[in-house]
Amino acid sequence: MARRYDSKTTIFSPEGRLYQVEYAMEAISHAGTCLGIMAEDGVLLAAEKRNVHKLLDDSVLNEKIYRLSNNISCTVAGITSDANVLINHLRWWAANYRLRFGEEMPVEQLVQELCNEKQRFTQRGGKRPFGVSLLYAGWDKHYGYQLYQSDPSGNYTGWKATCIGNNHAAAVSLLKQEYKEQSLEDAKKLAIKVLWKTLDVKLASEKIEMAVLKRKDGKTVLEELTDKELETLIAEHEKKEKEAETMAEKMPTPSDQTELAFLRLLERTKKLCDNVETNAHKIQAAAGQLEALLNKMHELNKAESNELVQYTRELNQLRIISQVAMQKSAENKLQQIERIPKLFPLLNGGGKETEEKEEEIGEQLQSSNEIKLKNKTIYEQELRDELFHRIHQDKKEIKHDEMQEQMANELLSLTRSLKENMKVAGNVIKDDNQRLVRMQQQVDSNEERLSAESVRLARHAYKCGFDCMLVFIVFFIFISFIWMVLVMKIFPKVSDWRKSTCQQSLRPQYRCLTHIHMGMRTGNYNVFFEFTVVIPVIKNLCLEDNLSNINALSPFVLMLAVLYSVILELATSPTSQVLHERNHFKDRYTEEQKLLDYILFNYEKAVRPVKNSSSTVVVKLGMTLTNLFDMDERNQVLTINVWLDQWNPADFNNIKSIRIPCDLIWLPDIVLYNSADDYTTGYMKSRAMLDFDGTVFWPPPTQLRSTCKVDVTLFPFDYQKCSLKFGSWTYHGFQLDITNRSNNIDLSMFVQSGEFDLVKVYQKRKVTRYTCCPGKCI
């Protein structure tokens, strides 16, 4: 017979495992329970005492918690003789460090020294690993309070709370739920609670040992709890347990439905164990669901019960059975199934509630121990068949490979369906995004039309009011002139002396009136009106013979004539109408409406915003990449979604920032030269922001499709380089100077694509001269 793989420490099994190390861990799992909890003001260590007998001498009884140095202590689980050897090593290293350097050895450094020694015993022939695991509690000036745990392989880890020894899995599960940042007093209560739930015997002061490591008067001290203090803690916990049981009897447990679901699934999983070779992967999947239900029951109960501990043990055993079934050789299966621990019965004594729940699901649960024995018999028979060559090993391996292939095909089909679902979901999301973009465009277009129509109606209403006022004034002047004519007809004719007086007195006035001007200043506009209509009126009044009654030409009549000419000139002058409209709405418009009307007055958006035609408009172009939509390898087209940032300097002094529709102002005709779409699609309409210093900020969101040379030789590990070339379509570089807004592309809003990874993105400015056109093109 060939040599067994686990007979030597340094020889690996075909599965790559060191069984001697695993055997050492198995020995630790059967030792007494030890736990450590780190608190805010210290570290607690607790250990289970076994083989306590009344005839034993307490003075020579080995303790479970050891002091290693002035600042480090530990507790052990495993073979006592191995523990004594390691304790002596630890104490010697700590004393040697203190003697050489004059200070206490750091906690982690001491743990490393011991783990190195453990590791050496797993690498040399003729030696075996130490069958002991240690929990270290210490304090140093660098890291404060610390808690470490090391295993026979030489590995160590730091913990906030952990457990080693018997039933360590259940204890760690309970610590996960109950642990929080707490004081040493709360840590003592938590340790009693964990030991109460996990120990296989009734908890008593003579069966446990507990100590706390803390700082006192500038020194690290290790204080062991007396039997009286332990009895007090145990009595308090018993009282709480009784109160909890009383409350549970009065109130229905909210986890009943979850527990029934767990039991039903556990029953179906155990039925799969009848053919564990074929259903191994199904058992593992069911174990994951069982774990989720078990966690839910832990959350609902808020405390560890005996039933939950039993459920945890059965779940762990089912997992181990499924893992054993996936081994290739019968020898390995038999070795592993022998190491499965026997399940303990429920500790509540009565079991009445469990029996009622079993009746609800139809039949009594199959015992996990029976499953273990059944599979053990099967594996023993397989081993005998292999030894006597009844079953060829190649057939077993072929059967195992077929099972693996079947599982791989199932996983592949699931992966394909997931990929198809993701593709369908991506198409749906893409369609929804396009629909939302179209709706947003329609909303913006309707908003702009409604705004323009509102402004037009408001101006029309103001103009109508002004026209009504003019009609009223004209009507008043007409009535005044009729009254003047009537007055002239009633009074008698004047003498020739008065005629000469009229001629002498009115001619200077006539000459003066010919030079009458009216000046008006509104805002930045100077408007002058010259009234020439009144001249022939006065001339006719003074020279005609039939109007000799000069008394009728009083200063009041002269004022009416001048007023008539002024109103007539204002009514017929286009400039006056504009000035009236600009001044009339100021009392009714908002600040932004006034600012918009001021900016767009006599503004022509078809020409560049420069005073001198030889001046250059500087445009700062930037890009914010949001995502890569698509890469069409066949047509070599890249589709991305970006925001374009363009800055146009303009001259509007002393004006605050305002956001207006972009089609009201001049915009640069920047296009994508290598676009894969029609240029007539244009950019998405958006609002532009005008700053007080004349700067225009226009960020239109758009989706760009550009041509891109694609090389798929190395697919799916290919790298593709695509360029987006922007520039003005009609302006040359002396008219429109395009510069980079920043050195890098903005990727703050970028969403990674599921098909491509963005490796690098950058931008640069390039000046090109064409023979067809003067000037440089950018």
Automatic annotation (TrEMBL):
UniProt keyword Nucleotide-binding present: no
A UniProt-annotated Pfam family:
Proteasome
Any GO BP:
chemical synaptic transmission
Residue ranges of coiled coil = 223-250, 283-321
Endoplasmic reticulum keyword on record: yes
Q: GO terms for molecular function, please?
A: extracellular ligand-gated monoatomic ion channel activity
Q: Which domain of life, per UniProt? A: Eukaryota
Membrane topology category: Single-pass type IV membrane protein; Multi-pass membrane protein
Q: Which InterPro entries match?
A: Neur_chan_lig-bd (IPR006202), Neur_chan_lig-bd_sf (IPR036734), Neurotransmitter_ion_chnl_CS (IPR018000), Ntn_hydrolases_N (IPR029055), Proteasome_alpha (IPR050115), Proteasome_alpha-type (IPR023332), Proteasome_asu_N (IPR000426), Proteasome_bsu_CS (IPR016050)
Task: Provide the Gene Ontology terms for cellular component.
Answer: endoplasmic reticulum membrane; nucleus; postsynaptic membrane; proteasome core complex, alpha-subunit complex
Localization, per the record, is: Endoplasmic reticulum membrane; Nucleus; Postsynaptic cell membrane
Signal peptide (residue range) = none
Q: Where are the transmembrane segments?
A: 469-491
Using the record's annotation, list all stretches that form the Proteasome alpha-type subunits domain.
Answer: 5-27
What keywords is this UniProt entry annotated with? Cell membrane, Coiled coil, Cytoplasm, Disulfide bond, Endoplasmic reticulum, ER-Golgi transport, Glycoprotein, Ion channel, Ion transport, Ligand-gated ion channel, Membrane, Nucleus, Postsynaptic cell membrane, Proteasome, Protein transport, Receptor, Signal, Synapse, Transmembrane, Transmembrane helix, Transport
Main function: The proteasome is a multicatalytic proteinase complex which is characterized by its ability to cleave peptides with Arg, Phe, Tyr, Leu, and Glu adjacent to the leaving group at neutral or slightly basic pH. The proteasome has an ATP-dependent proteolytic activity.
- The protein's name in its UniProt record: Proteasome subunit alpha type-4
Organism of origin is Diploscapter pachys
